[in-house]
Amino acid sequence: MSRAERQLRYLASRPEPVLVLTETARSAGCEFLAERFERAGYSVTFPRPPHGTRERGVMIVSRLATSPLRLPVNYLPHRVAAVTVETTTGPLEVVGVYVPSRDQTEAKVTRKRTFLEGLAAALPTGKAGHRLVLGDFNILEPNHVPKYRTFQAWEYGFYTGLAAAGYADAFRLLAPDALEYSWVGRTGDGYRYDHAHASGPLTRHVTGCRYVHEPRTDEDRLTDHSALTVALALTATAPLDVTDPAAAELTAPALF
Question: Is the CB of residue 193 less than 8 Å from the CB of residue 182?
Fold first, then answer.
């Protein structure tokens, strides 16, 4: 069974009605996932990276009806996918993000910094509305334990800037002192790269936020990152009539 097939089976078994997938590509495997979910009746939002590049992005897969949410992200726009879900308390905006990683080269530093600055400018204020901004931020909180010297002030500044704009780290709302890591390097060093930030009015509806390590740590190892799940005390008004995308006989692509 191919990796794409295994990922499909795992994702289809998850209880969350909205899934945000990061590090997606214009690849056979990601097209396979998008096609299978769409065929099963899911809403799929997948701003594909440009042809002929090794760029990565975001895909949102939903068992709830969604409408597109346009954000003015002009630089690497495929690294942001955003939708609106209707609930009994009004619209919930879900913004999936995949921030570029970097090394010490000037080009990679400039690329990441430019993207973060553009994203920060494009996000609406967190002081109004129900909005969840989540994904692989490739940044750490300023008081991350352990402390790594490789991160620069402007990277920490994106995290603190979210707080200044009215957003709260959903994980820290419920576990202010916990040491959890969503990515672990070859030397065993842990990093909390993956985040979910809730707008101020949404924080009162956050009932759970935890890391799901099995996709990273199990023998099957579907990904090199742990998942992050967020529970909200909201009731969606437009569930879709979906079927199991993994139920039918699968013919997986040769590449992923």
Answer: yes
